[in-house]
Fold:
Amino acid sequence: MSPFGALKELIGRFCRSELVKVFSLSSVATLVKMLTGLISTKVVAVLIGPGGVALLGQLNNLVYIVQYLASGAINNGVVKYVSEHKGSVGKVRTLLTNALLVTVVCSLACGTAMIACHGRLSRWIMLSDEYGYIFIVFGVTVILYAFNMLLLSIVNGYREYKMFIRINVANSLAGLVFAVVLTLLYGLPGALIGATTYQSAVFFVTLYMVRRKPWARWSYFRGRIDRSIIRNYLKYALMTLVSIGTMPVAQILIRRYIMLDLSELEAGWWEAMNRISNIYLLVVTTSFSIYYLPRLSEITEPNEVRREIGKAFKVIIPLLLTGFVLVYLCRFLIIRILFTSEFLPMAKLFGWQMGSDLFKIGCYILTYVMIAKARTVVYVTTEIVFTIIYIGLACQLMQTSAGIIGVTQAGMAAYLLHMGVVYLYLRKIGYV
Structure:
């Protein structure tokens, strides 16, 4: 075969890959989520400024943690087990019944705790007593978010990619309208209320869209209680809680440190950089949740796992690097479009943040294997150690002349170390 023919065949195999197909489909949902995120970010930046953006970042990190606590953090487990047993109606009914039980118990407990501790949460997270009502509203509505996450996990477990993407598009659009209207009407309080409740409000959108699915009938959630299934869910819950808890907690602590030691202005720049990072990484993370985790959960042979990891690196990393170059070259334009002139000094953070994001995605590709294969102890240990190192490095480098840049440098160093450790472990057990 000629070099041209070989290249053509290679490109053909790349385009026929299921990961690429899912990546292409998810790009539609991601594009909508990116656009809605861009619009809401612009509205927030103009109306409440860098200081408000910093406070909103504090709240968003807590919301992220609490929402997963309220759902029982079993979503990855639901995806795995539904994906494995989707051909057995009886087994699926048992899985969904126990998933609903965990969701209801956890969401009620979490909501009650939020309401009871609203004053303390306001003082510690928001550095003020005046935001207690935010946490009361959050506590009342968080159960709807938990139900929404359960429905999305079931759709993902059945590998109904198109339905999953349609729901995400609808949720993004509904969430944008909800959050922007509240911000326009009530300023910072409206933005904070929107951040805590919009994902609960879109539950009704999701429920409407899945109403015709066979599993959406009440009979699928009235099976027998199985303690072994609950225990299996809790294994995933532990890994998920560690995953979603460590980084948001680290960001809360670091942002609080920046606000107290440097300024709210610089905390706002750092939070704005995180927002941009989250937006351009949506394409990757959405594809991972739709395709990568269910696929890793299905396969059992180490050789197949290695091939799947290799495919992920070959597809994702070149796309990321291309995107990073474009984003870096357009960084000043991006800041002007998304924020205001007050945010222009954050341009110095872009290079270090992209290095951090590159290693972050590498970590995701590898750590998803531990999640799919329920390597609970190792996963929990590495995540906790990584978080401690990140916080320590960020605080140390912040005290040097690097200042706010030191925080992004710390992120890159910590993710590089994390990826290296996880790689060595997976190599030891034969998955890479």
Remarks:
- Residues 18-70 form the longest helix (53 residues).
